[in-house]
Design goal:
about 210 residues; seven-stranded mixed sheet
Length: about 210
């Protein structure tokens, strides 16, 4: 996987739009795919929570260790069994699950590490985003890129509907599920005219989901 040649800012991107899903009380948080810890550091500063991280890239994990309480380096699948059970109020997956060979098993395994009432918060790219969808339908192309919805390191692809199905089938109760970072382009609306505006999900490059165990 070509994780070393990512665009500048890829590993220190602070996902401010994902902070709004953080519960009012969160004493223990783990950010899976934490990069250099920039996002998790904001959580720690705002809540004084104990914040852990797991990061695939060693150099970024070493940076995260300087600002977080505990950081694991390597594939998240290698560390799940080492996490304490019933410990975390929040598990974040910000644009991570689509990079995994088996995100379903990861979501299944992480449940045992949530406190009662704890939540998983994820951001997952939407393959129906208008740029990707139109490129496929009309340009007949499936071109991978360095980042974004068509990131060449993505192994799984989701729609808003399939994300909901995934969580439901794994025994989660979805509390929030909504498109985020809506496109400012008029193209999604123009494409929707013949469809009577029934496909407005193509405006969103990602979906944010908050889910707890049933």
């Amino acid at each position: 996987m070509d994780y070393e040649n990512k665009p500048e800012g890829y590993y220190n991107n602070i996902r401010y739009e994902m902070l709004k899903y953080l519960p009012p009380v969160a004493n223990t948080v783990i950010d899976i795919g934490c990069g250099d810890g920039s996002f998790a550091k904001i959580i720690k500063e705002r809540t004084n929570a104990e914040v852990w991280g797991i990061e695939y890239m060693k150099e970024e994990a070493l940076r995260a260790e300087k600002v977080l309480d505990k950081v694991y380096f390597g594939p998240c699948e290698d560390h799940l069994d080492q996490l304490p059970k019933h410990y975390f109020d929040v598990v974040y997956f910000n644009d991570v699950l689509e990079h995994l060979v088996d995100p379903f098993t990861v979501l299944e395994k992480i449940k045992i590490h949530l406190k009662p009432g704890g939540v998983v918060i994820s951001s997952i790219p939407n393959i129906r985003y208008h740029n990707a969808l139109i490129n496929l339908l009309f340009a007949k192309d499936w071109e991978y890129r360095g980042s974004g919805v068509m990131d060449k390191t993505h192994l799984r692809f989701f729609t808003g509907k399939s994300i909901l199905k995934m969580y439901d089938r794994l025994g989660y109760k979805v509390q929030v599920h909504e498109g985020i970072n809506k496109s400012r382009s008029l193209k999604p609306y123009l494409y929707n005219i013949p469809l009577l505006f029934t496909h407005l999900d193509i405006r969103y490059p990602q979906y944010a989901t908050v889910a707890s165990c049933k």
